[in-house]
Alanine racemase (Bermanella marisrubri), 365 residues
Amino acid sequence: MSRPTQAIIDLEALRSNYRLADSLAPQSQSIAVVKANAYGHGAVPCAKALEPIVPAFAVASIDEAIELREGGIRKPILLLEGPFSFGEVQIASEHEFWLMIENHNHLAFIEQCEHKKLICKPLKCWLKMDSGMHRLGFMPFEIAAIYQKLKSTSIVHDEIVVATHFATADVEGDAFVKEQIDCFNEAISGLGCLTSLCNSAGVMAWPQAHGSWNRPGFMLYGASPFELPQHNDKTLQSVMTLQSKVISVRNVKKGEAVGYGKTWIAQRDSRIATVTVGYGDGYPRHAKNGTPILVNNQRCKLAGRVSMDMITVDVTDVGSVNIGDDVICWGKDLPINEVAHYSGTIGYELMTRMPLRPSRIYINA
Ligand SMILES: Cc1ncc(COP(=O)(O)O)c(C=O)c1O
């Protein structure tokens, strides 16, 4: 038998979360964000599962888009960071990749392609505005002129989406989101353009910002983009279950320590189960003593430092635990955000840092 550490990926849960995102914004189209290997879930299998129900996908770069094309995905794919070179503009036109145009280099690449008559099919462009996050995009005062310029460029498709990204959409009612929305609306007023403002948090909490297109990512994988528990929406279904098994069990006496650095000291005579999952499998190295984990579907607590291949769990209070018993690190009954919280990070990071070591088992294809 091989090592039982696996990431089970429920593709029906993925589709259900996409349908939820789409239904929350009935006037918008929803582009499925599958960058960073579909947030660690496997880009091609996830895109294949979604393709019949989504109009388009979004990734960070052309390499991620090519991986999807080579995997058989035919729907349009938006490159969220735009082209990194002039050559990528040509590839984009051949493969129906949509380009986020967010700086003057991008405009120069397009001009070069037009000048050299290198593009056969019109390019679909999204135009990014910096409405306050100050990460990517043209300044609001530049948008109208650049929009008109792109529109009059012969190799650019007439339908241009003007997009922006929020800095604080995960903070309910945040005044800065309202400022960004106002800034965006003012800059595009009179253009009659298509729009896109919302990521997952925007889709869930900012209906007034739903645009022609929304861009949900994290929520598709079944976790809430909000830190506060009241937003951990039960209707989202966790897509990934990181599971493993107990490989050893022992008693330790009150006062004895467990694991590297002796960071966990038994406060009473205790029973410790060793589980074959560690930071080499994506379980966070910084998870604190007390991080919740399910052993035989019962909540237990991490006891001692996370090793590369193993963790140790206090199972004193959950009855008989034996070698071969089931362990769930995160999944349907244990939100990844909760584990992330105990590790000083966010669910986004745990998902996207999942290494390939635990095999991905796809269910409900
Ligand atoms: C421009 C853009 N849109 C959408 C998303 C998806 O965001 P989320 O995963 O929070 O839904 C991201 C993710 O970082 C992004 O950078």
About this structure: The chain has a mean pLDDT of 96. The chain has two domains: 31-220, 240-363.
